[in-house]
Design brief:
Helices cover about 0% and strands about 50% of the residues. The chain is an all-beta fold.
């Protein structure tokens, strides 16, 4: 056991090259490097017990930094942890238990916080890389249960990322990448059970991204294989909110928001939004093979897509200069459903609602840049219906209800200017 608590002393333990992979796995040695330079009141703590460990802590220039590394237990194996803090008042904690882990934290600004906890239960192979360059950024990562990767890069100020992967004994393969380049962005990701991939990019200010994939725990049913969720909230867009929830197998969700204030209007308060600017819910019991895409390029838009069934497809594009458009899609079908819904809203103040159930339906809504304040409602049940609506002028209303088998409806309102 090696336990080092350093105030302003400098402790350097030189690494033996034999301790580095692939050699160190045949060694019984432990390597620690602690280096605190030109700073005051910094505290570094390293505790290592059981297994092969390397620990590196370096705190330069800034004052009142705190770094803690705690490695090894629960049939532990190989661990590597690295903390590097250049600014002041930064806090880093790494706790690693159970089989192979790597964790790297680098914080360059002031007042950043990173907490990493890997490998409880039957823990497996875990990798974490954090970053954080600005001020007052916060990252929390908890990984437990089989193979996980986490990458978090936060460049601005006051960004928050919380990642939880594969808890309760039977998680599986998970990948997360966050990247928040602006200020005051928040990302929450929870992944439990089977294979998931998540990517979130926020370059604007005040964005919220929430991703939830296959979350049933060991004590439930562990639903969900091969989910993919990707959220992009790009530079120039501020205060956007996005959420993806996936259950079932082979789900694919993509959200891109470039505009401003695509949210429920009270996002800046300290409560979780009831309505997100863009939200995709996929899966449920037996749901699989669904694909949903939401792109919002203008401002003050809302889009909600709910897919409960098999082989469902939904695409929403809200663009143009107007904004303030609303899209609602609800798809629920039984085996071999093949439901397809497409919405394009380019004007301002348009609303569309598409509800599809049973099998083999197609719905297409275009509310063009030539009209504003249009409403479209489509309800399809039964088998094999098609509905197409195009609204080119303003203040139009279209209402289509199809039941039975093989119905076709086409509505065109207004001529393009």
């Amino acid at each position: 056991r090696a336990d080092h608590r350093i105030g302003n002393r400098v402790a350097v333990h030189r690494l033996n090259s034999a301790l580095r992979p692939p050699y160190r796995k045949s060694m019984k040695s432990i390597a620690i490097i602690l280096n605190q330079t030109l700073s005051n009141r910094n505290v570094a703590t390293v505790t290592q017990a059981g297994g092969l460990h390397e620990a590196f802590i370096e705190q330069q220039g800034g004052d009142v930094n705190r770094a803690t590394i705690n490695q090894g237990a629960n049939a532990s194996s190989d661990h590597t942890a690295s903390i590097r803090q250049n600014g002041g008042a930064n806090v880093s904690e790494i706790t690693q238990r159970g089989v192979n882990q790597d964790a790297v934290v680098s914080q360059n600004g002031d007042g950043n916080k990173a907490f990493i906890n890997q490998g409880t239960g039957i823990g497996r192979n875990h990798n974490v890389l954090v970053g954080q360059t600005g001020r007052a950024n916060r990252t929390e990562i908890t990984q437990a249960g089989l193979n996980q990767d986490s990458i978090v890069n936060q460049n601005g100020d006051d960004n928050r990322a919380r990642i939880t992967q594969g808890g309760d004994l039977l998680g599986e393969n998970h990948n997360v990448e966050v990247n928040q380049g602006g200020d005051d962005n928040e990302t929450n990701i929870q992944q439990t059970g089977r294979n998931q991939l998540t990517k979130v990019t926020q370059d604007g200010v005040g964005g919220l991204a929430n991703v939830d994939q296959g979350r049933d725990s060991f004590f439930a049913s562990q639903r969900g294989d091969n989910q993919i969720a990707e959220i992009e909230q790009k530079a120039g867009g501020n205060n956007n909110t996005a959420r993806v929830q996936q259950r079932g197998d082979n789900q694919n969700a993509f959200i891109s928001q470039v505009g401003t204030q695509n949210n429920d209007g009270n996002f800046m308060s300290d409560v979780t939004p009831v309505i997100y600017g863009a939200e995709i819910v996929q899966g449920g019991d037996g749901g699989s093979g669904n694909e949903a895409r939401i792109e919002q390029i203008s401002d003050f838009n809302r889009a909600y897509t709910n897919q409960q069934g098999t082989s469902l497809s939904a695409n929403v594009l809200q663009n143009g200069d107007g904004g303030s458009n609303t899209s609602f899609i609800d798809q629920s079908g039984n085996g071999g459903s093949l439901l397809n819904a497409n919405v394009v809203q380019s004007g301002s103040g348009n609303a569309s609602s598409i509800t599809q159930s049973d099998n083999n339906h197609f719905a297409d809504v275009k509310q063009t840049e030539f009209g504003d304040n249009n409403d479209t409602f489509i309800i399809q049940s039964g088998t094999g219906h098609s509905a197409t609506v195009t609204q080119n002028s303003s203040d139009n209303l279209s209402n289509i209800t199809q039941a039975g088998t093989g119905m076709i409806a086409t509505v065109t309102q207004g001529a393009p200017n």
